[in-house]
Design brief:
The chain is of the alpha+beta class. The chain is built from 7 helices and 22 strands. Helix 2 crosses helix 6. The structure holds zinc ion (ZN).
């Protein structure tokens, strides 16, 4: 893993500013890890040494944690003056004026319990899952207090927000079909057949790699991580090999799904995996956006909520213009300013060993979203990237995971003179399921036969990268060209078809 991360970082550094690698990790061969890395047990760097965000270590404050603790009144925010980043003090009190849980809110005083999550919803406190409705879970969330202050509390929030017609199946046992016998260390996870988005989460934040995807009846290899770089035929169903959580959207190209189950080979062996399967049909629709502005300043805006809202309206009008040919229109854009110490800490995403430690806490701000959307985070900058998608596709409608949204390197994009709306459209298109037609070295391609490929034949300066100017006429005009230096917005019919099928679209 270490070697791999270094190789990716140096490749991107070499290509200088303006590279949009977008969360797609470029494989550097060697997808079979050395035997010492098999990771069925905790150990040195093993599967149980995951880094949890500090919000997960949490002690409630006050005289109650939930209504059940109160002999009279309800469990709600007490009068203790809030301190930025602290834990909310709760007490049993008569209900205050304000809305009930589930209502839309902009500040603590909008809610009867004084608890308004950053994503704009009144919530009720809880101690564990049993205190919550069955569709919700008990999570540590950030709630707004007076001014720029946010605080932590444990509250009931939906884990999934998808249109009502989408069938959702969550499975958390007997997933691991077998350990493969062909000498690799991959563990096969059985996926039920048919067309679906499969989302594989692990209890720990350990990175899982997808090694291959195949069906048994008929016997068909959809994706093989080992074959990506050896001039093999294009994958039938590419998957984003290192996203967290792992997602597989079948089909994402012309290859038909099979009715019989698939086997998704992953490594290392997952700890307490949860598989969420989403099914439904879409041909375009409305895409809502939850826009979190995290300490980023838009050009031409003073930073006031009104001017930021205007900047967001312009960005998403541009996104709609670009994604419109796929039958996608932008629905509601919900603006969530992130302020105070939270913005201070999360506005710059630094890279550590190939991942972004702040990303997990950032994505937890999606907890509290109740409508299907793509969450888009506008931070000031991301180390060496213009944008970062939570997956290809992202875990649509599943909230609070490390991949639950798109992040934009807002100020770097604007300082580079690039079009923020176009970069947002590119990242959202990743989130809806589009890969780069070909990657930076021209060797790895998407599963769509009608997308342009720019190979190293075009690499005029011999630097090993098929750059935007070298690829003029060979894909640089496409929205999904790998480099952030490109300015094109074209989408092929195949790409439009993939985008139009995203299950997070509202009808
Ligand atoms: Zn990209």
């Amino acid at each position: 893993m270490g070697t791999k991360a270094v190789a990716i970082a140096s490749a991107i550094g070499f290509a200088a500013a303006g590279v949009a690698a977008c969360g797609r990790t470029i494989p550097v061969g060697d997808l079979v890890a050395p035997s010492g890395d098999a990771g069925t047990d905790a150990g040195d760097g093993g599967v149980e040494t995951c880094t949890e965000a500090p919000v997960d270590v949490f002690d409630p404050l006050g005289t109650c944690a939930r209504d059940e603790d109160c002999e009279a009144g309800i469990c709600r925010r007490d009068a203790t003056p809030p301190e930025d980043g602290s834990v909310v003090t709760l007490a049993c009190n008569p209900p205050a004026a304000g809305m009930p849980e589930g209502a839309t809110c902009a500040s603590d005083t909008d809610c009867g319990r004084g608890l308004c999550v950053v994503a704009g919803r009144c919530v009720a406190p809880c101690r564990d899952r049993e205190d919550c409705p069955s569709s919700e879970s008990c999570e540590v969330v950030r709630v707004r207090a007076s001014g720029d202050i946010t605080q932590q509390v444990r509250a009931c929030v939906p884990r999934i927000a998808l249109p009502a017609d989408i069938a959702i199946d969550v499975e958390d046992d007997s997933l691991l079909a077998e350990t493969a016998e062909d000498g690799t260390i991959a563990t096969d996870v059985a996926l039920p057949g048919g067309a679906a988005l499969f989302v594989l989460e692990t209890g720990c934040a350990e990175a899982l790699r997808a090694v291959r995807l195949r069906s048994m009846m008929p016997e068909l290899v959809y994706f093989d991580g080992d074959e990506l770089r050896v001039g093999a035929p294009a994958p039938r169903n590419t998957i984003n090999a290192e996203a967290r959580p792992l997602t597989a959207w079948i089909p994402n190209g012309p290859t038909a799904p099979t009715a019989e189950s698939y086997l998704l080979g992953v490594a290392p062996r997952p700890v307490t995996p949860t598989l969420t399967t989403l099914r439904g049909t879409r041909r375009g629709g409305a895409l809502d956006i939850d826009a979190f502005v995290v300490g980023a300043r838009f050009q031409g805006s003073s930073g006031s909520p009104e001017e930021d809202a205007e900047a967001l309206a312009q960005i998403f009008a541009r996104v709609e213009e670009i994604l419109g040919p796929a039958g996608i229109r932008i629905g509601e854009v919900r603006h969530h300013p992130v302020t105070g110490e939270l913005a201070e800490r999360l506005r710059i995403l630094d890279r550590e060993e190939g991942s972004f430690p702040e990303r997990r806490e950032l994505m937890r701000l999606t907890l509290g979203i109740a409508e299907p959307s793509v969450p888009v985070f506008f931070v000031r900058s991301i180390d060496q990237l213009l944008g970062l998608s939570g997956g290809v596709p992202g875990p649509w409608g599943i909230l609070g995971t490390e991949g639950s949204g798109v992040v934009m390197s807002t100020e770097v994009i604007e300082m580079s003179g690039l079009d923020l709306g176009r970069v947002a459209a590119h990242e959202i298109a990743h989130y809806l399921g589009l890969f780069h037609p070909s990657e930076l070295d021209g060797l790895e391609v998407d599963p769509l036969p009608d997308t342009p490929v720019c190979s190293l034949d075009q690499d005029a300066d011999g630097d090993g990268f098929a750059s935007a100017d070298e690829c003029a006429g060979f894909g640089a005009d496409n929205l999904m060209f790998w480099s952030g230096q490109a300015t094109g917005t074209e989408l092929t019919p195949g790409q439009q078809m993939v985008l139009s099928r995203a299950l997070v679209l509202k009808r």
